[in-house]
Design brief:
Blueprint lengths: L9 H7 L13 H17 L24 E20 L2 E14 L5 E10 L13 E8 L5 E12 L12 E10 L13 E9 L16 E15 L1
Antiparallel strand pairs: 1-2, 1-8, 2-3, 3-4, 4-5, 5-6, 6-7, 7-8
């Protein structure tokens, strides 16, 4: 995995901020009424019909990342992208730290459905001592109606259980919604989300080399991964 040494770590995190006719009823003669009804039926048949969403069935998961009862999956996206890391000081050493995912979630028909990244959640103030537009959270933006949802990971709601998670893959997660926003034209598909699960992961793990000394600070690694994201709502 290639690494790029940055002159300034600030540039990495600065880029994150740039990161989402009324009907008239007229009584006429019977033949006219029949003709109007026929015309209306023809017009209705020619209009685009609502798309029925196929039922979403979520797979079995470890007990600690199960969604609470009363929430049901309504949308699933198949992600293809990268987990993006930067080498930073950590304790007495150095560690690759995730600074954003960059992924496109596809529908079962392979159409672009959602984009996934990190961005500030405007409904949460930034952490104490930090300046910004909000707390940086995992973010999903719907490609059709531009609605957005932010979610956070709670302690203990991550799993690398080998009975479920592939070796060498990033953990499966249960994320709780921390904020949502309607799209520019009022779209609200993702605003009904209560939980998001990241499941069926492949790849995405931070490199084991390239971040061991001060000279490595600022190195970036873009690690390919795939995953399925399940979106839940109440009811």
């Amino acid at each position: 995995m290639p690494f790029v040494n940055l002159k300034s770590i600030d540039g990495v995190f600065a880029s994150m901020k740039n990161w989402v006719a009324p009907l008239t009823h007229v009584t006429r003669q019977a033949p006219f009424i029949a003709g109007a009804a026929t015309l209306a039926a023809v017009i209705a048949a020619s209009l685009p019909q609502p798309v029925r969403a196929d039922p979403v069935t979520s797979p079995q998961v470890p007990a600690n990342i199960q969604v609470p009862q009363g929430n049901n999956a309504f949308l699933v996206g198949h992600a293809v992208g990268t987990q993006d890391y930067v080498c930073l000081p950590s304790g007495d050493g150095f560690k690759f730290t995730l600074f954003t995912p960059q992924a496109t979630l596809l529908s079962d028909d392979h159409d672009e459905l959602i984009t996934h990244f990190f961005s500030p959640n405007p409904t949460e103030p930034p952490p104490t001592g930090q300046i910004g537009e909000g707390t940086v959270r995992a973010t999903w933006r719907h490609s059709q109606d531009s609605s957005i949802v932010w979610a956070k990971l709670a302690s203990g709601e991550s799993s690398v259980d080998p009975n479920f998670v592939r070796q060498g893959a990033i953990p499966w997660l249960l994320l709780r919604v921390a904020g949502a926003k309607r799209g520019l034209t009022g779209g609200a598909i993702l605003t009904q989300t209560t939980f998001v699960q990241r499941l069926n992961t492949v790849g995405g793990v931070a490199p084991s080399s390239g971040c061991a000394k001060a000279a490595d600070v600022g190195n970036q690694a873009f690690v390919p991964y795939t995953a399925d994201y399940f979106f839940y709502r109440v009811g």
